[in-house]
Amino acid sequence: MISLNNEELIRIAKESMNKAYAPYSEFRVGAVVVTKNGKIFTGCNIENSSYGLTICAERVAIFSAIAAGETQIEKLVVVADTIEPVSPCGACRQVMSEFGDFEVILANLQGKVTTTKVSDLLPHAFRMKR
Description:
By secondary structure, the protein is an alpha+beta fold. The protein is built from four helices and five strands. A five-stranded mixed beta sheet has the order 2-1-3-4-5. Strand 4 and strand 5 (113-117) form a beta hairpin. The N and C termini lie far apart (31 Å). The mean pLDDT is 95.
């Protein structure tokens, strides 16, 4: 079980950001998912010339966790070179809501950090009746 503080997780997200494939927008984003089992999964945005096929860093990290059998997310960290801490797009917010109301750390390269929760980012998420 890995236990890292938010500053260490932001550093890992910055490293992931540098791996982004963003030749069209040059807008690089890095993300880290921490599962309730303490496992860490990283993601970066991956663009495609057919923009609809582009995938955000948040979803890459979440989908990596899910593909590894980890569905209990404790925290998501997202970093980009923005004026204010970067905020996930609507599609990412909906995917995040599928896996709970976990902590979300939003950061930029200048050291600004905002802490929120999935329910604050998407208060009226679409949910299947179960």
